[in-house]
Amino acid sequence: MKALVTGANGFTGSHLVKALLQQGHEVVGLVRPTSNLSRLAALDFPLVYGDISDRAALDKAISGVDVVFHIAAYVDLGIVKAAEMERVNVVGTRTVLEAALMANPSPKVIYCSTIGVFGDTQGQVVDETFQRTQADFSSAYDRTKYQAQQLVDQAAAQGLYTVSLMPAGILGPDDPHFGPVIQLFLKRRLKLWPGGDRLTGVVHVDDLVAALMLAAAKAPAGEHYIISAGELSTREMFQLLSQETGISVPAEPPAWLVRLLGNLLEPVGRLFAWNPPLSRERVHYIYDRCVRIDASKAQKELGWQPRSVSTILRELAQA
User: Which residues form the NAD-dependent epimerase/dehydratase domain (predicted)?
Assistant: First the structure.
């Protein structure tokens, strides 16, 4: 199999590239000219340099490939560059799909989406058949990934072979999002963390990679798969890490104080073009939004076998 990986230098993309090469597949990576390539330093495979919305670069990268793993995305919450996020997540996805549709023959497109496309399920456990009921969007990321998913589904209706994977929170030793928080905890420097009751699904990045590869090999066209090893509260996460390390669980500040800080830091962040650790949007995700999911379909139909939540956290504690 010859595969193109968009966002090959990123967290999920680099793990996918390594797994594909280890299994003997031919890989091409699409990266920006300014990308940090440190995650790919030890790997020998060709790169095409270009923006995800650069059609000429994509046409070059897609030529002759069997599968496109579309991983590239702008992932962040809070005070973000919304226009840039839309360009990457929406326009970029449209460009990938157009290039795939025009290629001869057209490759499969395996799209890394997110459980966020379901919107706030308000604690209801949902599967792939769930139709979003939230009328608005909780964030620019929420909106742009939903719009991108709509484009993927439209391309599937036009005859493009697409498979969409909706992962929960992706964890791993080099996770750029929650990883720094875990590192602070392991260094005994994380004394406070809000929202202990917040439930979230998690998956190890290498298990997500396994699901992506299974989807390319086995999934029927047009299918959707939720990818999660299970869910737990933030408090339970730190309790598991504490059991493994002997480090005390961070104390939880009162919700009223966290909300107040979010309201105070929001205008400061906007004034100085700074994304603070707390903002109204981040507070909303901590206390108000709850997306719960059933990930059994991928295990039943693809034979996907993720490591357990406790194993994921044990490995992170020992990393």
Answer: 3-227
Q: What is the DSSP letter of 232?
A: E
117 DSSP assignment = G
pLDDT on residue 319: 75
Query: Per the domain annotation, does 211 fall within a domain?
Result: yes
Beta strand 2-6 pairing with 26-31: parallel
Domain limits for position 76: 2-168+204-228+293-306
Q: How many domains does the chain have?
A: 1
Specify if 38 maps to a domain: yes
Mean pLDDT score, 187-213? 97
Q: Say which amino acid occupies 208.
A: L
Q: Is residue 286 part of a domain?
A: no
pLDDT, tens digit, 9 for 90 and up, residues 114-146: 999 999 999 999 999 999 999 999 999 999 999
Strand-by-strand arrangement of the 162-167 sheet: 47-49, 26-31, 2-6, 67-70, 108-112, 162-167, 224-227
Residue 137's Cβ-count burial label (10 Å; 0-12, 13-18, 19+) is: middle
Count other Cβ atoms within 10 Å, centred on residue 219.
23
* Per-position DSSP letters for 236-284, written without gaps between them: HHHHHHHHHH-PPPPB---HHHHHHHHHHHHHHHHHTT---S--HHHHH
Mean pLDDT of the chain: 96
